[in-house]
């Protein structure tokens, strides 16, 4: 079972890789500012890594905040109903 | 009022259909689309899953017993799990998040039942190609960055380059939605708790009840 059987069309084309790279680049926050599509792949990967790390940090901060808020939520069952209805709307 | 809500629902469906390329809602086996993380519907689904997961965390660990860092770790894990479930198994990182948790629970369970043995080995990845066949001249710098990226996205440390890129795109879009949903939930909770404490202290509430 060769590992290359994954791409049945043969080697993965450079073009597909470039397409994936540009899709990734469009997701990064810098995409609008830069305007050029000539960022080197290395730089792009570096930005992707730092962006994912900053997103992880944000999620961690939000988890801290939510866990603090949760303890105040304890005595507040009507609040839970309100929250559910807000989430539904 | 009923007409506006139904038209909004139709609107959302149209928006979702326009966003997902290919017209039809993604069928089983279709690739994960990063754009689906931007629909309002996904946001709602994730928010309710997140809220339910948080309630379970709160019920499982009364405030006095768990320390704050431990609780926020539980919250983070619950949020990641909810995110992985929202992906509906169509991306490798989501399957890895759910699988790793199951493995840890099984290992802990087995350790409780009998003497600790060798932990279950990971399923051997037959491919093991870390260098992509496509990019012929992969400089070491690029390979290093790719490895770092593979470590950041769960379950993707052995993927070939193109698959790694597509998983990373989906993961980034999902993380952004996670941040949006958690921020919104935090805002709601803080406003609810602050208004609750205000009314509890007997002061008049800011918003008068609708006449």
Summarize the structure.
The complex is a heterodimer of chains A (89) and B (211). Chain A is an all-alpha fold and 89 residues long. Chain A contains 4 helices and no strands.
- Which parts of chain A are unreliable, with pLDDT below 50 for 5 consecutive residues or more? 1-7
Strand content of chain B: under 5%
- Specify the structural class of chain B: mainly alpha
Report the total helices of chain A. Answer: 4
Task: Sum up the overall morphology of chain A in one term.
Answer: elongated
Distance between the termini of chain A: 51 Å
Biggest interface: A-B, 54 and 61 residues
Biggest sheet architecture of chain A:
none
Tell me which oligomeric state these chains represent: heterodimer
The description of the largest β-sheet of chain B is: none
Number of strands of chain B: 0
For the secondary structure, the number of strands of chain A is 0
**Average pLDDT value of chain A?**
75
Q: What percentage of amino acids of chain A are in beta strands?
A: under 5%
Task: Identify the overall geometry of chain B.
Answer: globular
Order of helices and strands of chain B: HHHHHH
Helix content of chain B: 55-70%
Summarize model confidence as the mean pLDDT of chain B: 73
Radius of gyration of chain B: 22 Å
How many helical stretches of chain B?
6
């Amino acid at each position: 079972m060769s590992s290359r059987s994954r791409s049945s069309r043969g080697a993965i084309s450079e073009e597909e890789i470039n397409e994936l790279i540009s899709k990734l680049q469009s997701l990064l926050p810098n995409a609008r500012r830069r305007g050029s599509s000539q960022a080197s792949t290395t730089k792009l990967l570096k930005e992707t890594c730092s962006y994912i790390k900053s997103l992880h940090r944000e999620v961690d901060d939000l988890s801290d905040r939510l866990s603090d808020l949760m303890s105040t939520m304890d005595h507040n069952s009507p609040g839970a109903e309100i929250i559910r209805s807000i989430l539904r709307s | 009022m009923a007409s506006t809500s139904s038209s909004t629902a139709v609107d959302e469906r149209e928006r979702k259909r326009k966003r997902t390329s290919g017209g039809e809602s993604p069928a089983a086996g279709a690739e994960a689309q990063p754009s689906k993380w931007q629909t309002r519907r996904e946001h709602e689904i994730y928010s309710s899953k997140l809220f339910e997961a948080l309630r379970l965390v709160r019920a499982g660990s009364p405030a006095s017993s768990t320390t704050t860092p431990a609780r926020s770790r539980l919250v983070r894990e619950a949020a990641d799990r909810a995110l992985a479930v929202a992906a509906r198994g169509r991306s490798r990182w989501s399957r890895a998040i759910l699988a790793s948790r199951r493995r840890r629970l099984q290992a802990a369970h087995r350790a409780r039942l009998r003497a600790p043995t060798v932990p279950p080995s990971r399923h051997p990845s037959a491919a093991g190609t870390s260098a992509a066949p496509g990019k012929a001249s992969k400089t070491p710098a690029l390979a290093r960055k790719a490895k770092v990226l593979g470590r950041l996205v769960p379950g993707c440390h052995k993927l070939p380059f193109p698959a790694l890129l597509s998983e990373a795109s989906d993961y980034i879009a999902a993380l952004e939605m996670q941040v949006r949903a958690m921020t919104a939930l935090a805002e709601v909770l803080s406003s609810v708790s602050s208004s609750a404490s205000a009314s509890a202290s007997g002061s008049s509430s800011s918003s008068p009840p609708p006449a």
